[in-house]
Structure formats: structure tokens, C-alpha cells
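Trying the structure run again after the queue cleared.
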Amino acid sequence: QHPGVMHACGHDFHTAVMLGAAGLLKAREAQLPGRVRLLFQPAEEVSVGARQLIHAGALQPVSAVFGLHNAPELPSGTFATRSGAFYANVDRFSIRITGKGAHAAKPEEGIDSIIAASHIVIALQTLPSRRVSSLESLVVSVTRIEGGNTWNVLPQTVELEGTVRTYSTQVREQVPDMMRQVIH
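Done. C-alpha cells:
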């Protein structure tokens, strides 16, 4: 613990809830018809923790899996559940646009990477509605744009970064090519 410092995305909450559940389940162990295994997924943000646990055999033998994630929008003391996938696949993307820097007073002498990045951001937003069936789920979010370092110069490069969320493996596999087509 470090006063005034926290990760602030819910992992402390998740850990506390799971440890509380472990205590309650242990107190009722004799009444349970089987064994309960609690898994704390490491490296969730970089999508490697679940794979590590699976390869280590953490799911052998397991007959059911229940995932947990906080949902602050629900009233205190309640929870929601359903069968099947609850949260989407998550993939990260990074795009670097290289134009030609120029003074803002003479933009015709450059290749405006800011304008190109703006068009790419808008075009990426059309992927869910124009390239994927409305029966499927796809979310494309550009979450970081970085370019330039002053007010009067067109930057040579702009970087975009973001995330793609899908439920379908087929859609997930198609997204990189769809993004490349939009970018080119």
C-alpha cells in the first residue's frame, strides 16, 4: 500500500471481492458438492494472463467457469449474470502516419499528417456499421492521438492508438485487414 497512489481500474476491488468470496465459500466447504478454484488473472490488460493460466493447467479439470468484473452502474449489493461470453475480445492497435512537415503558413509544401489521421479516425468508425453485419458486434475506439509539438508547424508524423472489441473469432480475424484497407 502506498498512500495517495492507486491503479484505479478496479483490480483492488476485484481482488477484495474474490478474497471475500473465498472466505465465504471456505466457511461452507462441507455443503458444496464439488471443489471451487479461484483464479486471479495476471496481466489482464496485455491479454497474456489468461493464456498463461490455461497453459499452466489451471482449468484442468474444471466443469464450469464464472468470470467476475465490477459493474459500478449496478446498485450496491446486486450483481448481473448470463451464460456465454460476457465481455469481448480486446485487441490493441497502433497506427503511425508519416507525412511531410511544413510551416502552417505554407501547408501546400507539406503532406498534412493531421488531416490524414483525422480521416482515418472517421473512416475507422464506419467499420462496425458498414463492414460487419448488424448481427455481429464490433467496437473500434481510437483512444490516443499524438502529433506535433507546436502551434504553427504541420507535424511530419501522427500516432493513433486504440482498441478493438469483438465477440466473434471470425470478425476478430477480419478486422486487421479491414483496418489496413481503410488506412491505405
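The chain has two domains: 1-87, 89-183. Worth checking whether this holds up in the mutant runs.
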